UniProtKB/TrEMBL annotation:
Coiled coil: none annotated. GO terms for molecular function: oxidoreductase activity. This is NAD(P)H oxidoreductase. Gene3D superfamilies: 3.40.50.360. It comes from Streptomyces albidochromogenes.
Length: 190
């Protein structure tokens, strides 16, 4: 049985360091024997706004969401491994990624069931941070952001094997970021 990864990219520029890290991750995943579905949220024109069709219905976990959201849900379900590559903006997810989580990782799909549909998947959050590691850690942002991503999203949705890897000093690190992506994927692969 082949392994399948969903590689989610959240950056508006295709020439960004985020895009370069995502490409590095794609190449590594392919080399590690994964089939890779690249979901570039900006390139695909994903709309992060939640309209009534995709608003959670707490009384109906079987709600049928919009066709766009159901297509994204199928992509998430098809993956054994989910790798999300994004810049940390205002100590959180870029709007397009937050909207993707809000609309796609919805009640009845990603949470709200006694046996989560996403249980058994693995997840790596690979995020670029402009701070140097020392300062980011001293301020406690590594704990805050790491907990939000790992516990607040992944574990809440049944993904127990979730990791967060920060690529620090992203405005200056340049090609060193590609080594960071490799190190994160090496550690994740073990």
């Amino acid at each position: 049985m082949s392994r399948h990864a969903l590689l989610v990219v959240a950056h508006p520029r295709s020439d960004s360091l985020t895009a370069q890290l995502a490409e590095q991750a794609r190449v590594r995943l392919l080399a590690d024997g994964f089939g890779v579905d690249v979901l570039d949220l900006h390139a695909e024109g994903f709309d992060p706004r939640t309209e009534p069709a995709d608003e959670p219905d707490w009384a109906d976990r079987e709600k049928e969401y919009s066709p766009e959201v159901r297509a994204h849900m199928r992509r998430v379900e098809a993956a054994d491994t989910i790798v999300v590559v994004f810049p940390l903006w205002w100590f959180g997810l870029p709007a397009v990624l937050k909207g993707w989580i809000d609309r796609v990782w919805n009640h009845g799909f990603a949470y709200g069931r006694s046996v989560p549909r996403l249980r058994g998947k693995r997840m790596l959050w690979l995020t670029l941070v402009s701070y140097e590691e020392r300062q980011f850690v001293e301020l406690g942002w590594d704990e805050v952001v790491g907990r939000l991503l790992r516990a607040g999203i992944s574990e809440f949705c049944g993904i127990e094997d979730a990791r967060v890897h920060f690529v620090y000093d992203s405005l200056k690190v340049g090609a060193g970021a590609l080594k960071e992506a490799d190190a994160a994927l090496d550690a994740f692969g073990k």
